[in-house]
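Checklist before submission:
- one chain only
- standard amino acids only
- sequence pasted in full

Submission:
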Amino acid sequence: MASPGAMVRALIFIGVLLVLVLAAAGLFSLKIDVGPVHVGPAVTTGGV
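Returned file contents:
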């Protein structure tokens, strides 16, 4: 039914979507895990 081009575009779209979701989840978990630990130094170095 669907043309090969449309299939490829759908696969690329799904792949990009998965990468974005994984990247967002990774950043979110990193922020939760690392955030409290590095808040102090980041703020002090930024202030200075």
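Reviewer check: DSSP finds one helix and no strands in the chain.
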